[in-house]
Prior knowledge:
By secondary structure, the protein is an alpha/beta fold. The protein has 13 helices and 14 strands.
Amino acid sequence: MNIPQCSPLSSYLALRPELDSAAAAVLAAGNYILGDRVAAFEQAFAAFCGAAQAIGCANGTDALELILRGCGIGPGDRVLTVANTAVATAAAIVRCGAEPGFVELEESGYAMSPAALELELQQRPARAVIVVHLFGLPADLPALRATAGRYGALLIEDCAQAHGARLHGVPVGSASLAAGFSFYPTKNLGAFGDGGAVITSDEALATRVRALRQYGWQERYISALPGGINSRLDELQAALLLVQLPKLAAANARRRELAARYDAGLAGLPLQLPPVRPGAEPVYHQYVIATPRREELRRFLAARGIGTAVHYPQPIHLQPAFRTGVRLPRTEKLAGEVLSLPMFPALRDEEADAVIAAIREFPW
Ligand SMILES: *Cc1c(COP(=O)(O)O)cnc(C)c1O
């Protein structure tokens, strides 16, 4: 048995003829950066997300950095997020010159706790809060938005793991100031290389982000805004994303189907299944279980040819580059317990069943 934890190659094989011809058309067209494929993708992705504007950029980290820069956030400002996320979220804050602060998680989930956010904002103000919809499970955005709003902090979403997820019917990323997406190959919507996007319905912010992604240009060769960077989306990646975007809803539905299979098959075992809040339509970027016996279980599955991953083994506030001295007991406990099972749309029912059977065989 050999079941990988993820399989970006399977995304290519599923749509091979369409992807090959889209790539060939771009190569033959002679325009490779910020052309009509990027413009078409931006329009289609904005519509998919329920936002007025999407701005393509080089990766998900840059998407968050561009939003922060577009909001005028920089040295002297503090931006809050969580510590159980891709280090990219915190790196984007630091790249702007701002200081990251880390907020504890809710009791029974993987997202920022609105109560902990309130406490943090009472103690020290922050210019912005970046909410992460980790693993494709929507965070409690209405409560977090209300809390941030009471303290005058801007609300930004990191949707790098949540393309197409909804809460009470509202797509993630569409009900805050702006959101960043990544199209890293393993994400729910993945490029074949790096890519990212900002979505926003704030036209003034969209205009600033569009300028900032290319040297601060508002017209060619004339930098109007300071703080511009080079973070563009390729025509090639945009063309490949345009092929996949119409299939994203079905791919997410397949992930939900596999998650339901895992939920049913693993019920009754002494481990925590993914917590989905009422009203949420998750997209299971990862299917994550939690158990204090994580390392043992991981080795047991590896010996049976089943790939797993740990997202993430060390919380950001404990990493050498980010150490702040703060303690986050729940975040730290979860980092020792989380285990991501195989999850990708091409995973077959029989393979999910084999994963379930192996976990049930584990000497609990
Ligand atoms: C992948 C990811 C990012 C960063 O995206 P890149 O495209 O790798 O820069 C940011 N936040 C989260 C939660 C991610 O999963």
